[in-house]
Amino acid sequence: MPVNGEYEASPSEWVRDQVTAYEESHGTRANTLRDTALPIIIVTTRGNRSGKVRKTPVMRVLYDGAYALVASKGGAPTHPVWYYNLVENPDEVAIQDGPEPFDVVVRQVSGDERAIWWQRAVAAYPPYGDYQQKTEREIPVFIATPK
Fold this sequence. Notes:
Blueprint (H helix, E strand, L loop, with lengths): L12 H12 L15 E7 L6 E7 L2 E2 L2 E5 L10 H8 L4 E4 L4 E9 L1 H14 L2 H8 L6 E6 L1
Antiparallel strand pairs: 1-2, 1-5, 3-4, 4-7, 5-6, 6-7
């Protein structure tokens, strides 16, 4: 099911600005993490409490047509808000990786499958390894597959 409804932009100015620039340019601008050359995607979810459409830049971890969505929050002790959106509404998620968004279904991975995807995530964005060392929680990994 597509993610339709009222969009509520992030309270974080840099997130709002990046999402706007990415979408307005159809993915040709603001497609890397701030001042790095590391690519990002825009993940659209339904808010788990508000029900509003939310958009978040997330590091691009792509393997064999599937995306890993790593809920690192920079190694903070708590999950990012979008983690709860994915748990609550795994069938109402879209990814924009280029000109147009597309619907995906997500699932959280664990065990050996998580370990494999974690290695792929750290290879794509090495700071993830440092983030895991900063926190006692196991950083969640979701796999998003196009519908």
